[in-house]
Amino acid sequence: MQEGAPAKEGQDKRPCAHATGRDADPDGAGDGEDRGDGQVTEVTDALERTRSTKYDANHNIDTATDAMGSGTTPGNVTDYGFNTRNNVETVTAPTGGRTVNNWQTIAGADVPEDSTNADGEKTEFTYDTAGNTMSVAQAGTGGGDVSYTYNKSTPECGGFEGQRCTQKTKMTSSKTVTTSFTYDDKGNLKRVKAPSPLGETTYTYDALGRTETITDARGIKKVYVYDNRDRITTVSSTNDTVRYWYDGDGNLVQRTDGTGTVKYDFDPLQRETVRHLQDGSQTLLAYTAAGNVDYYQDPAGRTDYTWNEVNKLTELKDPQGAVTTYKYNNNDVRTTTTYPGGTVQKVDVDDSSRPKSIKVTSDQGILVDLAYGYGYGYGTKTDGSKIRTSTDHVTGRERAYSHDGAGRFSYAKEEKDGAVVDSWRCRQISTRLTQRCWEAWSSSGLRCVVQRDSRGGGCGPWATPENASSW
Questions:
Q1: How is 401-445 classified by DSSP, letter by letter?
Q2: Where are the beta strands (DSSP E) in 185-341?
Q3: Cis ω on the peptide bond leading into residue 197 (within 30° of 0)?
Q4: How far apart are CA 354 and CA 335, in angstroms?
Q5: Neighbours of 70 (CB within 10 A)
Q6: Can you tell me the distance from the alpha carbon of 253 to that of 259, in angstroms, rounded to the nearest whole number?
Q7: Is residue 312 within 8 Å of residue 301, measured between CB atoms?
Q8: Cβ within 8 Å of residue 138, ≥6 positions away
Q9: Are strands 77-82 and 260-266 parallel, antiparallel or unpaired?
Q10: Other CB atoms within 10 A of residue 427 CB
Q11: Sign of dihedral through CA atoms 383, 389, 390, 393?
């Protein structure tokens, strides 16, 4: 599949065909029905909840109905549309959110021309005559694009024809950064040169084509050693050496580094049961007949897990004996969580299983009471996937959120009794590859600089600038 291409979801690609009847799994978790051509049309689980699927003449999924139906009221329906070449063109959620894909045929393969999600965010794709992705562009305000070059018949970056040589990312209208790739004569990736300050990473390989060394831009070199089954047995670097041992089934049974040795035991189903830690302590894992974790035990105590007939967690007991319980709707979406102190969180979801409201109560009364809306556009009648409004019934405040064409948050305002009491606006202030910063300004005069870099970044402190009122 081409990079950036949406999956052809909804297609039934199972190798089996012409099965008939009803089949139950060993734990009685459900039954299935098909129509004699290998396509499952109805599944009833161990809680007697039924989900159904309809297919078109080409065996693509036409509609999928969830388990929220009751009596004569059907469940929620997700609708799929395919073109004559069996590519998924539309996906419509039960609440109306719609994804639209347009396709084209290049070099005999079907590839997406563009894709517009339920929030109206459009991604466009271009290709060369061989079907390699040449560009991926996000349309609209705030959108960017990435373009690629490839080896021709006479390679320009080593390796073979069709291998990627460069990736160019347009950061702003005046700034584009390039990552370049170089290959050896066997087609192995030899060098990746990223924009400053990331620098260059180099790779070497052994006679079997396995990665032997990796040297990053800091000059730190890692050396890999393998066994005759291509499993890593040693990783040596400037700072440490890590060694690995495996059993006959391929499970990792021992790991040794500068902190000591950790050993692992497994049951006949290759599941971890005991972990022997560096300090001599142990952790234990036990499983139910259905394969769920029954309990976990470490030096701090034992945690017990209870599951329902369809393998959803219903109760958790911590080492102190405190119990948290969980309830679900017919689609297995968690709707109620009851905490040990008696606090209860209830989540009401819409037909697309998104939170519609969240309410938290305790013996002190209502702690949290939030409502969410996902509609946008004229009259907020277009269903999207992002939260567009939130209402806090405890404080009486309402928030409305806006996003740019790339789907990033851009503006929010908070109102109470019809008057704006606060607002926030974000803009990008840095485009360095390893440091993407945004300013968030509040109408109350607060400024926050949010930074994300190659190491995870962080959020700078709030400050009150002199020019806050003019932004």
A1: EEE-TTS-EEEEEEEETTEEEEEEEEEEEEEETTEEEEEEEETTS
A2: 189-193, 200-205, 211-215, 221-226, 232-236, 241-246, 252-257, 260-266, 272-276, 282-287, 293-298, 301-307, 313-317, 323-328, 334-338
A3: yes
A4: 11
A5: 9
A6: 17
A7: no
A8: 121, 122, 123, 144, 145, 405, 406
A9: unpaired
A10: 14
A11: negative
Whole-number Å distance between alpha carbons of 317 and 295 = 9
Which residue in this structure is represented by tokens 């390893």?
A: 434
Tokens coding 210: 């396995």
Asked if residue 312 lies in contact with residue 326, where contact means CB atoms within 8 angstroms, the answer is yes
- In total, the chain counts a number of residues equal to 471
Give the residue among 96, 95, 64 at the shortest CA–CA distance from 80. Answer: 64
In angstroms, the CA 423 to CA 70 distance is 43
> Distance between CA 44 and CA 330 in Å, rounded?
11
Write the pLDDT tens digit of every residue in 407-461: 888 899 999 999 999 888 876 554 443 434 445 555 555 555 444 444 444 444 4
Could you give the 3-state DSSP secondary structure of residue 468? helix
Query: How far is Cα 236 from Cα 149, in angstroms, rounded to an integer?
Result: 35
Encode pLDDT of 231-280 as tens digits: 999 999 988 999 999 999 999 999 999 999 999 999 999 999 999 999 99
Rounded-to-integer distance, Cα 76 and Cα 298, Å: 43
Task: Give the CA diameter of the chain.
Answer: 75
Distances in whole angstroms, Cα of residue 158 to Cα of each of 178, 217, 467 = 18, 21, 53
